[in-house]
């Protein structure tokens, strides 16, 4: 879900007129509070956020139940290319592994409030797909290496 600039206020707006910003957040559902020297954040009603958490938990439990009844996760694996078109570069085993890891990460987000893992799983598998999409890079990546090349930057 994205928020347009019309749904954003500055941190200074919030400091100067918190009542108006709170009323705007209540009317719109949430507003993005931009901050020049810090990450932006959202102002929203607690009941709305709690509803979003319950929705994520329900979706996560549904996915886990699907996997429980179909260990191959066929229904989810079939849907993955519509959600992540780049999975066409993964092998069938890799696609199934990605699907299972993602469902587990979504469960962690819903049940344990560990939100970063799902994006890390997606970024990791997308990086694998990116390398496999370019035959020259893929061939280079498969060559044996030695030594430590230092930290790696992975973008989401």
What is the topological layout?
Layout: E1 8-10, H1 11-16, H2 18-28, E2 30-34, E3 41-44, H3 46-69, H4 74-83, H5 92-112, H6 116-133, H7 135-141
Parallel strand pairs: 1-2
Antiparallel strand pairs: 2-3
Task: Kindly name the structural category.
Answer: mainly alpha
Global Rg: 20 Å
* Oligomerization state: single chain
Strand order of the largest sheet: 1-2-3
Shape: extended
In percent, how much strand structure appears in the residues? 5-15%
User: Mean pLDDT, as a whole number?
Assistant: 88
- How far apart are the first and last residues' alpha carbons, in Å? 16 Å
Report the total helices.
7
Number of beta-strand segments: 3
Q: Which spans of ≥5 residues are poorly predicted at pLDDT below 50?
A: none
Largest sheet composition = 3 strands, mixed
Run of helices and strands: EHHEEHHHHH
Helix content: 55-70%
């Amino acid at each position: 879900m994205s928020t347009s600039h019309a749904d954003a206020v500055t941190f200074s707006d919030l400091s100067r007129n918190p009542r108006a910003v709170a009323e705007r957040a209540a009317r719109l559902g949430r507003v993005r509070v931009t901050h020049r020297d810090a990450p932006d954040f959202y102002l929203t009603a607690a009941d709305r956020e709690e509803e979003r958490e319950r929705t994520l938990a329900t979706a996560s439990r549904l996915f886990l139940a699907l996997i429980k009844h179909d260990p191959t996760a066929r229904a989810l694996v079939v849907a993955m290319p519509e959600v992540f078109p780049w999975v066409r570069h993964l092998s069938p085993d890799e696609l199934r592994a990605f699907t299972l890891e993602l469902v587990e990460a979504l469960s962690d987000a819903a049940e344990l409030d560990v939100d970063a893992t799902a994006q890390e799983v997606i970024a990791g598998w997308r990086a694998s797909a990116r390398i496999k999409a370019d035959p020259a890079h893929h061939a280079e990546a498969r060559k044996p290496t030695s030594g430590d090349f230092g930290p790696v930057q992975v973008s989401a």
